[in-house]
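Before a colleague's protein record goes any further, I have to sign it off. I want your independent view on whether this chain really folds as the tokens say. The record follows directly below this note.
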Amino acid sequence: MGRKVLVLAELKDNKLRNVSFEAIAAAKTIAEGGEVVSLLLGESVESLANELVQYGADRVVVVEDEKLAQYSSDGFSQAVLAVVEEEDPEAIVFGHTALGKDLSPKVASKLDAGLVSDVVDVEVTGGNVVFTRPIYSGKAFEKKIVTDGLIFVTVRPNNIPALEKDESRTGDVSKVDVEIKDLRTIIKEVVKKTSEGVDLSEAKVVVAGGRGLKSAEGFKLLDELAEVLGGAVGASRGACDAGYCDYSLQIGQTGKVVTPDLYIAVGISGAIQHLAGMSNSKVIVAINKDPEANIFKIADYGIVGDLFEVVPKLTEELKKLKVNA
């Protein structure tokens, strides 16, 4: 009865991103007992295939080519479409990441399929697969079903829990040759602006700063706190516009959307555009000297005080807890 579902695995620094495993979990629900096939694209990536099986994929299809070493919508779409033609899946799942947001509309258009993007929950009710996605900058949610043809969805990172890793699982790994040709874009070099560390869009803990930090120097306080918590640093648009940090850290309607287990907003007033990028975080802690700041309306915990006093003390106490743990 079940469906065959194709899941695109995603890499960062030649390691599988968590969203790849979360997409497999979503695919399992969509498959309803059918086969989940993971697709792995890149250059020399076959060694990573087994991990996808351990997280729930029944089979892995690998396409290797030096032209797939760096992401390009031209190259990746050619590879995906070739595998879709060969596998003929009834559903496709991508992560709702920078790559997924760029690639999925192109592939959906070529396949003449609808696309349900930014899915935060998948359930099966009354014989239908129901997808929940946020609308109006996260102020409301809508439920969608695909009534006809191919099911094609992208899942938001950190929302659908990955299945538990089972190292005893085995599955078939096959290589497919796809001729990647006529690339209109060639990536010569990738220059990283963000520091190495936890990926902001997948972090379980995010420490974000706003204009209240007053300078790039102020953001160093957040780096220390994030390091203690094993989290990532983010920022409001105001802080980015003021030159305190790089735009790659921006969270909000025109930046990244994050849904960590813990979100600490430091010196952020809580403009509606910022809330659109973080309001679905599981626990929100706000630190601000203005008791009327909008951020406190959605915070689970609030500290009214000078962030330059509060953050160092908080970091110090957390360090002590870690030592005693």
Notes: The longest strand covers residues 128-135. The two ends are 50 Å apart (CA to CA). The longest helix spans residues 307-324.
